[in-house]
Design brief:
By secondary structure, this protein is α+β, with helices and mostly antiparallel strands. The protein has 5 helices and 4 strands; from the N terminus they run H-H-H-H-H-E-E-E-E. Strand 3 and strand 4 form a beta hairpin.
């Protein structure tokens, strides 16, 4: 029995490794279930909202500046306009990328689905079809601490959901929008 003492720590280490490897899939499943149930508290456990807001603001600011062009960036009025546009995009991201903002978007999704007749049994008073934004995601590990799930818009543009490992947990930290690759 004394010769087999190492089996228990080895099994614990293997279980921990399996949990870390399965972590992003569990996080994606948790996000999908939270969206389906419209459970913003559960969504908060799987999304790092401060990092997500910062990353989305940076993408939108970059997009606005690149679309404005060099001429707008170099003029005084253009610079002021870009500052105002950056403030507006930042305020929009701050308002929407919160558990409460996501809840409001999901409520609007429910109303739209009911109005368009996209319900479970076709009756406008029945439960709407649940939102499943990650249903057909293509997943991959980018590194040992980064995982991506890519879905495509109806136009075929990729939207990449980035999950980062924070300790033993995986959380959504970035959504790479297709507008970042749009030519000016």
């Amino acid at each position: 029995m004394k010769k087999l003492w190492w089996i228990v720590p080895l099994l614990a280490l293997l279980a921990l490794g399996a949990y870390v490897v399965a972590g992003p899939y569990l996080a994606l499943r948790g996000i999908s279930q939270a969206i389906e149930r419209q459970d913003t508290a559960a969504l908060d456990r799987h999304v790092d909202f401060p990092r997500l807001r910062a990353n989305l603001k940076a993408q939108l600011d970059d997009y606005v500046v690149r679309r404005a062009g060099i001429g707008t960036q170099s003029s005084l009025l253009g610079g002021i306009a870009l500052q105002l546009a950056g403030g507006l995009t930042g305020a929009g991201v701050d308002a929407l990328v919160t558990p409460l903002g996501i809840g409001a978007l999901l409520q609007g999704h429910q109303l739209w689905k009911r109005a368009s007749g996209e319900t479970l049994d076709g009756d406008t008073w029945s439960r709407p079809m649940p939102a499943r934004p990650l249903a057909h995601a293509v997943t991959r590990y980018a590194s040992t601490s980064r995982f991506t799930a890519t879905v495509h818009t109806p136009d075929g543009e990729p939207v990449v959901f980035v999950l980062d490992r924070q300790g033993l947990l995986w959380r959504l930290t970035d959504i790479r929008l297709p507008l970042a690759d749009s030519p000016p």
